[in-house]
Write the structure tokens for this entry.
Amino acid sequence: MDVIRIEGLSKYYRHQLTGRKIHALEGLNLNVGQGETFGFLGPNGAGKTTTIKLLLGLLFPSSGKAWLFDKPYTDIRVKQDIGFLPENPYFYDYLKGEEILYFIGKLYGMNSVDLKKRIDYLLENVGLSQARHLPLHKYSKGMLQRIGLAQAVIHKPKLVILDEPLTGLDPIGRKEIRDFIFTLKDEGSTIFFSTHILSDAEMICDRVAILMKGKLAKTGKMTELLSPKVKTYEIVAANLTEEGKRALKQVSTRFVDEGTQVAASIEDESKVQTVMELIQKDKARLISLIPQRESLEEIFIQEVKGK
Amino acid sequence: MLGRILAIATNTFREAIRNKILYILLAFAMVLIIFSIVMSALSIGQDEKIIKDVGLFAITFFGVLIAIMVGIGLIYNELDKRTIYVIVSKPLHRYEFVLGKFFGLVMTILVNVGIMSAVYLALLAVKGYSIPFVLIEAILMTVMELVVVTALATLFSSFSTPILSAVYTFMLYIAGKLTDDLIRFASQMMTEKAYDPVTVADKLMAKTAISISWILPQLEKFNIRNQAVNGIPITDSLMMNTLYGLLYTGCILFIASVCFSKRNFK
Ligand SMILES: Nc1ncnc2c1ncn2[C@@H]1O[C@H](COP(=O)(O)OP(=O)(O)OP(=O)(O)O)[C@@H](O)[C@H]1O
Ligand SMILES: [Mg+2]
């Protein structure tokens, strides 16, 4: 069974003034299987949000079909098994944190007793226990994103659709939300999330699709898209002598001298050993040595250039 | 279905009662009801009529204002603030959303009319005036009128901006107040004329006028305030008029639901 199946889905908008067609999505085909964590990638304006809105019945497609849990997506019963976090979530700002969760739970037909327990659990889990009595207009962006996640999973959905869940958060917030997504994954939920931040996808996803200007550019398992080969080593060291710096510069493809600190890129693995010895001899300090694999970023940029 | 409509209705009610405009309007209504004592003191021997009249007027006038002011932003704000994304993605039909919004506003109006009426009736009791049942009937018919106005505000709010919705609703309200005159005028045209004989053109115009009055809300059907205050017997069947109000409201909500179901939320 596919959790999501999309066949030839297209959507065009009309330009407000000229009336010209804007193809936001063209002939998208996509399958997401049960239990997968699926990353829906693409630069700004690629059509990610459009796709998600079509699946949830917020927009009507110009053509094409889709199924959720093997039922036509227009059947509103399928939404009982779906949780959704919109891009930049907006909620009723006159409601308190716990009130919005209660309201949403009621829309899913939950009974009050279960709902109250679930609200306590989720508020604790997303770190908003302290803010439960605070009206949403006093929430920060990060807090809104968290309450948004809580409302998306209030009814323990089988499929969670998240539109840019990590955008606009600080590093700690991102980590917390990532951890929350991992928990969902462990619980066996299927997760479909869009992002234009590739490192997030690299960390979380099993499989990704890359969307470009409304068309599907690439899909594949994360492990297939990213070669395990290390491409370069990024080295940062401090307190090198002038002589040491010169030697380092000779073996590296990129070299930046910032006075006490230097940064260098090395492509050849055998030269790493040479550099390490050089640093030791100089009694300099190694700050970091990071192997760089080909990243999704590069695949992404190649795709953009290719089009 | 009912559970979801109720959830939306209570939430709408909560939104409305956290809206400051509501309290300002309510305060003005109270002031006017109580101020009627001063007005009555200036008149000679008409105290009771003036107090009763002004109070009913205040309830109606501020009721309509509340229905329009709160109603016009009802659905529009959900689109504008994009809270609609969270709602429409839930397992609910769009008509359930429209109905929930409508009933939430009706709840708000019932509470407000309730408060205004309580003050009004208390004032009459304190003054030692009679409170005939027809006065209560007049208030109940006013509620029916407000329900129709609420439905119209909901309809316009489902496809238009608040300011335009206010204009449309207010224009229809005025037109609805005049439909009685329109019908009377049209039927006169069909039957009698001071000099010329009735022509085909006259008949056509009269028929058109009557058709238009069928579409417009005939709000005077719900106005028995004058009769209630002055003790004039009521000739209309209140039952039939209420039925008319409910049917009219149903049609408007149906149209609102159809409009809303076809919308793309961009
Ligand atoms: N209401 C609209 N009217 C006209 N064009 C629109 C409308 N909404 C979106 N578009 C266009 O459709 C295309 C896809 O937009 P969409 O919001 O789906 O992109 P996205 O991938 O979610 O981008 P982002 O990463 O910025 O969120 C864009 O070119 C956008 O300009
Ligand atoms: Mg988007």
